[in-house]
Design goal:
mainly alpha, 2 helices, single chain
């Protein structure tokens, strides 16, 4: 699960900035949850 979050962020980077921006805006809460969970799990 932790790798999934990092993969999404890294995958968006190489792609068009617009796509990554939209994905970050929509996935912001999801990413935050993943990061929070990952930090707590670790």
């Amino acid at each position: 699960m932790i790798n999934v979050g990092e993969t999404l962020l890294r995958r968006d980077a190489p792609q068009s900035n617009q796509y990554s921006w939209v994905a970050k805006e929509q996935m912001l809460p999801f990413v935050r949850r993943m990061m929070g969970k990952s930090i707590k799990d670790v």
